[in-house]
Amino acid sequence: MLLSKAQIKLITGLHQKKYRNKTGLFLAEGPKVVRELLNSGLQLHSLLTTDDISKWPNGTLQVSDTELKKLSALKNPGTTLGIFYIPDPVEARVDGLVLALDAVRDPGNLGTLIRLADWYGISSIVCSEDTADCFNPKVVQATMGSIARVRLHYLNLREFLNHCPNPVYGGYMDSDSVYSTTLSENAVLVLGNEGQGISDEVSQVIDHRISIPRFGENGTTESLNVATAGAILINEFRRPTGR
Amino acid sequence: MLLSKAQIKLITGLHQKKYRNKTGLFLAEGPKVVRELLNSGLQLHSLLTTDDISKWPNGTLQVSDTELKKLSALKNPGTTLGIFYIPDPVEARVDGLVLALDAVRDPGNLGTLIRLADWYGISSIVCSEDTADCFNPKVVQATMGSIARVRLHYLNLREFLNHCPNPVYGGYMDSDSVYSTTLSENAVLVLGNEGQGISDEVSQVIDHRISIPRFGENGTTESLNVATAGAILINEFRRPTGR
């Protein structure tokens, strides 16, 4: 069936944050991601597929490849596009391990970090207001469905950390080795921007600066990517100690 | 200056593996990566830039943005493009920790793994013949220069592992926890394909299957991306024990 102009405008509008905020909706692309979000109980607005519609909930719209391509925010659109309601905001949790992001901008990195948080049972990520939007279609895709289980909170990060009862750790390039730092079970781990690292403003409220030591003899290696460094640091917090 | 047809054909040809093998040359894009490769002593064939040529070695060619864009293999070409000689093959090392890749296909993942190997002082990566080519321009860019310090060996992986004197560990989804497995200092760590994991053929020569335990209560989390899982597992091998 053919989509109406209003439907097309709604969907392509959701590529933009402004319009997502206005409508309270977001796009999820690819059959795997859409299936995960349906299973996780997120509220569906509408669903479009080039696939057999009998595999999908009642009311799913059949569209052509050409139509789907026009609506997609991705280079390689999958067969299925879902429009979901953005869940209602909840208070950020402060118990256990909390991940905090200071201006992480790349959608792929943010998606990978959300997926990692999900794997390691971290249910809250607090973000500075200039961190990439977690309902950006590229981020949603990179989370592979984890966006349904991990809640992101955009706030004044310095304020939040300043009032946080638990110790605040920050990932830096050249500070104390994470291996010789005592890592608290209730803690916040801050990761910084791809190019700049943690901002000066946020650095002022960091209690412990930690680094992943370089093992190579060569001192010129570029720093690790923020998602890679995040994986290693989160694992250090979560792994059983004293093996 | 204008490039000759032959020069254009040479450079765009290097987007393809067949032509890289034939000429023994590869492309590196972006000023940071090119600078790293120059500093690391890789042999330069030629260099093109839209930048001030006085910042670059003698013989650097000045080109326009439009020309550079035509030559680039990337979506966002930087200001500088270098053509380097592929270094002569050397024998794969088997002492210390060796990384082995079984059909890792995504250039971004391969680049991230090379950068990780460099960070952790791993100088050899052995790869199945169907692993992505490390001189693919996207891989070269993702390594951020680490390609100059880490050598990749494409070979019959099963054969290599079968004759390897050290224990062979493989990363799997659901096997023994890496935290409770004794990790040898001299070892091979095998990581598998993005979708399929380690192939059946290679699995037959794995001594120890290891996994990163899921901490979330939710069993439906997608597996971790191979580069992320690789980061965590390499760190487990390299970190000091018994903290």
TrEMBL record, chains A, B:
Indicate whether Lipid biosynthesis appears among the record's keywords. Answer: no
GO terms under biological process: methylation; RNA processing
Ordered alphabetically, the record's keywords are: Methyltransferase, Transferase
Which positions fall inside the MRM3-like substrate binding domain? 6-81
Q: Name one GO molecular function term.
A: RNA methyltransferase activity
Q: Domain tRNA/rRNA methyltransferase SpoU type spans what residues?
A: 97-234
Q: Which SUPFAM superfamilies match?
A: alpha/beta knot (SSF75217), L30e-like (SSF55315)
Is Transferase a UniProt keyword of this protein?
yes
Similarity field: Belongs to the class IV-like SAM-binding methyltransferase superfamily. RNA methyltransferase TrmH family.
Q: What is this protein called?
A: RNA methyltransferase
